[in-house]
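The instructor's notes for this session suggest beginning with a concrete chain rather than abstract definitions. Hand out the sequence below and ask the class to guess, before any prediction is shown, which regions might be ordered.
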Amino acid sequence: MIRSSTSRRGILKLAAGLGGLAVLTAACSSQPAAAPTQPPAAQPTSAPTAAAAAQPAATSAATAQPAGAAAPAVTAALPSGTQVLLNGAGSTFDAPLFSKAFNEFSKKTPNIKVNYQSVGSGAGIQQLTKNTVDFGASDAPMSDAQITSAGGDVLHIPITLGAVSIGYNLPGVADGLKIDGPTLANIFLGTITAWNDAALTKLNPDLKLPNTPIAVVHRSDGSGTTDIFTSYLSSVSPDWKSKVGFGTAVNWPVGIGGKGSEGVSGQVKQTPGGIGYFELAYAKVNKITSAAISNGAGEFPLPSSAGASTCAASVANNMPADLRVRIAGCSGKGDYSISGFSWVILHQKQKDKTQGAALVDLLWWMIHDGQSYAKDLFYAPLPAPVVKLNEQKLLSVTYNGTPLLKS
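After discussion, reveal the predicted structure:
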């Protein structure tokens, strides 16, 4: 039985570390966008993490790997008694899930610890390219040029799927303020500047919206969440597409910047009239109201794992061979349109046998058993066809030409 948001919220805590697991949620930036910088007044919210064990949530057999289903019998043998520390960095979008899942993996495999730094997708890509981490995590697929710069052998492993919330701080207005794509784009273009603008009142005739200035908040660091959000805006607004475009860092027309999802959600929470974007868990744990976004099919759904799953369903059976695909802008019944995959990125040709074996062991567990923790943390479990494709990618990881995973 799938839990309600209220019961799920009970398993989330604002914590930076968990038991024997080192999960660092450092709010460092990578390459900043050329945009106004964040003033020092706001304190960032903490990344939501799960400190208590969550019961696996049920998943749809049609779209996701069954929660708690046993993974195929594939292992990467480590020498007896070997202790391994894996270092990873990147996506703040993934941080809540990683905190919980890595902790559970550490209980199962106590000789493998994971140190993950939640520094943003752009920084994760940079650190993998410089070989300062064992793996990166990004909500934006690397470009061909970035892959070449990193050595040409980077694999993309979809690790989770989720919704980006459009959070706002408007006292007296609950969850569900309706916003369509062109209106949202015009807010972030700076052409809509007050909450009682005619475009918003037309969409929300039953609400008395105040004449409060809109305070736009965006990421200041290289961000895969920004890539998802701006990909969506580019799909619904020709003006946005031609003037700003999409990517991990863009030239924002208006607004103030926050480092990481923690920084953006912190600014929104502390700024009356604020609006920003961040992974759904940050909205839930920090009690930030979320907009209902038009999906182009006559619906205004709130962000949800179910809506992200529906958004991904149309591509799950037709993934490109390299598994790099953007889904933001989906427009079918039940879709939440600002959704996206997030990837773990790693080298196919591992340079250290022990580190490589530990890494593929972790990732094999993550795409199978680890998916059982997704829904309790407001993510969507990976569709079953994507899990199968991930298996093929992980089986191709080698050390000195020999596959590290063996059945």
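Then share the key points. DSSP finds 13 helices and 16 strands in the chain. The chain has two domains: 5-163+340-403, 164-316.
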